Every structure is written in C-alpha cells, then in structure tokens.
Amino acid sequence: MPQTLAVEFFAPGVRLITLQRPQALNALNTQLLSELAAELADAQADDGTRAVVLTGSRKAFAAGADINEMAERNLVGILNDPRQAAWQAITHFNKPLIAAVNGFALGGGCELAMHADIIIAGEDARFGQPEINLGIMPGAGGTQRLLRAVGKSMAMQMVLTGEPIGARHAQRAGLVSEVTQPEFTVERALHIARNIAGKAPLAVRLAKEALLKAMDTDLASGLRFERHAFTVLAGTRDRDEGIRAFQEKRTPTFTGQ
Ligand code: HXC
User: Fold this and answer.
1) Which of 108, 122, 142, 198 is catalytic?
2) 108 annotated active-site
3) Does a structural domain hold residue 224?
4) Is residue 253 part of a domain?
5) Which one of 42, 105, 106, 229 has the largest count of C-beta atoms within 10 Å of its C-beta?
C-alpha cells in the first residue's frame, strides 16, 4: 500500500492518483516518486485502466523536489539514483495522463504536471521553476517541456527569474488547456478522463504517441509516423465497430482489438 498516494477507481477505467504529503506540500521525495512510478506501472499493465488523473491538494499539486532530501543526498551519481529511475518510469507512461492542478506546481511539481498529456488548472494554480533560487536549474524536463509548451521568451523568463505564473497566464501561454474553479478541478479532469476511457484504446494510445512525436521530430518523420499509425488502426476491430456504430446510430462498444 502506498503511503504518499491515495488511489481511487472510477468507471469506465479511470484511476485517480492523489499525492498525499501535506506536511511538505507534496514535495517529491524518493518514497513519493517511487510509489508514483510503481502506481503508473501498475496502471499501464492493467487493461482495465484506460486513463489516469493525477492531482495533489487544494494548496499544492507539488512544491517541487524535496529540498530537505536534496540537502542530504546530492544528485551525484544521478544514474543510480532511485529518483531518476522513477522519473524515467513516469516519462514512459503510455496511457492518457491528465493533471488536475490546484495551488503550487513548482520545480519538480511543475515538471511532473508537464509529464501529463492534458493539464486542467484551478484558477489559483501557480506554475513555476524556482530552482534558480537554489543555485540549480530544472532537471526533470523543465527546460525542454516548458519551452515547447510556452515558447522561448516565457520559458526563459520563468526559468531564469524563478518567478511563477498564474493559471490564466498559463492557459494563455498554452501550458494548461482549461481553468476551473478550484473545487471543480478534479471533477473536470475526471470527466475528461472518462470521456477518453470510452474511446478505442489502441486509437488513443497511437494518437498520444503521434502527438508526442510532434514535440521531438521533424515534420516529415512525424507525418510518416502518423500515416503508419493510421494504417495500423485501419486493421482493427474497433475501427469497424466505430464505423458500424455510426451507421447504426448507436454508441460503439470498443474492445481494444
Ligand atoms: C521540502 C517543502 C518544500 C520542498 C514546501 N515545503 N516546499 N519541503 N521540499 N520543495 C515544506 C516547508 O518547508 C514547510 O514545512 C511546509 O512545506 C509548508 O510550506 P511553507 O513554506 O510554510 O508554505 P508557504 O509559506 O505557503 O509557501 C509555499 C511555497 C514555499 C511558496 C511553495 O514552501 C516554497 O517556496 N517551497 C519551495 C519551492 C521550491 O523551491 N521548489 C523547487 C525545489 S527544487 P515546515 O516543516 O517548515 O512546516 C526542484 C528540483 C527538481 O524541484 C529536480 C528534478 C530532478
């Protein structure tokens, strides 16, 4: 049983993971990162889980890497560090991941939110990369994913000054897709997750992979990947079911085949 996470299941196939280290504003220590990586690995292996929502508390999604732990354990030997292994596992999660962010998403917390495919933010959410104030810099994708999300000027400003931006600002910049009242953030994310969980799983998986390709490849390679994925899906039973259901004016029942 994880001690720093709460896990709940919702039909059809949605898993809600809530970070729970309230005494440290969900700071990401080794235990939390390892438990989160294990939970995502479990969700990935489970055919019944079709989408995951990740959230924190009203005050903090996550206030970053655990600074007290960082004081004790330097990142020397980073490849052998269990935190690094956990980040790798989180990066490779291949099902839809939606972050429901209220309050602080700072440092590693902002980087964790940016691992999600979709970010829904409460209007009091604060996104920032304050590592520069500690004499370091983002180390879990912050420079790369933030720049791709908000563009060069905004990313430079956030990383070099350490100053956070609010939810509306983050939405205008393209970092988050929707802003809600904080009491509805998780509900809204669950609603989107349920919607996605009802779609054909193979189509969802390949569409996610194709969209992520757009972030790290040239247009010609991305288009090649898209055509290949599209062709693969053309041979699936779920494609036949989707088209038949449309013609028969009924809701499709997808099986993942
Ligand atoms: C450890 C933390 C923490 C953190 C907060 N706490 N953030 N503990 N690591 N990242 C603890 C505080 O020490 C305090 O514990 C309790 O949580 C409540 O926090 P307060 O500071 O009292 O709350 P508040 O005044 O509301 O300020 C909230 C805050 C501030 C603005 C978020 O806590 C803050 O600036 N935190 C640090 C944010 C940060 O620098 N993150 C980047 C970390 S570096 P006590 O015991 O005193 O009550 C990073 C690198 C990633 O993320 C690298 C990835 C490889």
Assistant:
1) 108
2) yes
3) yes
4) no
5) 105
